[in-house]
Write a structure and sequence with these properties.
The protein is built from ten helices and twelve strands. The chain has about 475 residues and is α+β, with helices and mostly antiparallel strands. The strands form three sheets. The chain has a five-stranded antiparallel beta sheet with strand order 2-1-5-4-3. A five-stranded mixed beta sheet has the order 7-9-10-12-11. A two-stranded antiparallel sheet has the order 6-8. α5 packs antiparallel against α6 (about 270-300). The chain binds adenosine-5'-diphosphate.
Length: about 475
Amino acid sequence: MRRPNIRWRLTLWYGSVLAATLAGFSVAVYALTSHDLLSLTDVALAEEVADFAGDASRCRTREDFARELGPRYGHLEGYESQLSTREGAILFLSDGLAASGLSLPARRARTDQSRFADGELDRLGHVRLAWREVNGPIGPMIAQVAVSMAPNDRALRELLTAMLLAGATAVAVTLGGGYWLARQALAPVDRMVATAREITSTRLDRRLTAPDPDDELGRLAATFNGVIERLQRSFEEVRRFSADAAHELRTPLASMRTQAEVALQSPRSPDRDQRVFEDLLEEIDRLTRLVTQLLFLCREDVRLPSGEALAPAVRLDEVVADVANHMNVVAREKGLALELGENPPCLVRGDVDRLRQLCFNILDNAIKYTTDGTIRVSSRCDDGRVVLTVTDTGIGIPAEHLPRVFDRFYRVDPARSREVEGTGLGLSICRAIAEAHRGRIAIESAPGRGTSVVVTIPVESPGRA
Ligand code: ADP
């Protein structure tokens, strides 16, 4: 069976709690009232039976009973009286009892105490009965008085009816009011659901609204909006990344196609064919580099920083020395000096290949964008982190471009970089690697004077080899 919605559940809860409370309250009021009424009846009845017994004890002969007791107890409104011997012989009966020919059951009771019981009488219906023993000149007698309980029963019935009516009305009003209140309180949820349904990958700009930003629904809406905001940012990033990647791939492909077309339309010449194939190979190399870097970035995105703690320890100083050594050959070919300065032993947790890639990219840039001078590499360990610095004396980067050089596919002044091989992905890869190692990367530059790249990564155990 389908569970009723929250609105109905809340309403039913209100209703049931109120109904239970009212029922408990009504039972208590009814029990107290009926007890009080009975007590009052018993007090009056006890007085009546005491008077009756007192008057009876003063009668001397059997004839006295009818004469002395008849006028007072013969037809007392609502009361019936009986006087009998212990053995059950009737000495006096009130008019009502005499007419119906009934007698009250004789029961034993002490002289000084009245006893009470409930009973039924033909004429009076439900009655309360009190009796006691009394000693008279003719021996011990039993005086009994019965009073009709009809007024009490009527009062209790009226009380019950009033409580049932009031209770039913209160429960009905609560159910109606509760449903209305629950509907009012939950109306924003329906609006939020409707808005959330409109959110798709193409409509991530929609946001949920709640009447009060500080209540539960407001906080839920804010949390949900935060999630959508992050989703929107990553969607946009993915879209931009795909568009940029497609664009970058199209350029070399178009160039390769043009070269192949021109070569096909021209008469065959071994020399020119050789050149065309070499150019095509160069473009293919460029494409391969680009695709490798793109794949690298995609994989870097899915690396979880929490996995870093379980990563193996890497001697960063050895990685730096190794890459510097390797790049020294490239630098020398270009007539540049590459100096490895201070580089103390230093352990970091991470991926040796990625750290190698990080050093390689920075040194590759330093060599690419420097025409003459020296490139200096150094590292130092302090304060629980290693700081790797690569400084060159190259063309530098104008200040307005500095904030964007870590963006994917961003190249400063493409015209200036045209003769230099590059995809604009190198530094974004460096940043992804540094961040995957809980580190940071920063760049400082003075156009025409040189550039300095600083990478900071937490160390596993400072200075320990
Ligand atoms: P690229 O593949 O173009 O080198 P990067 O992401 O590595 O891409 O660098 C982005 C841009 O930053 C480069 O196009 C270049 O203009 C600039 N740049 C990076 N490193 C240096 C440097 N050492 N000296 C001057 N410019 C640099």
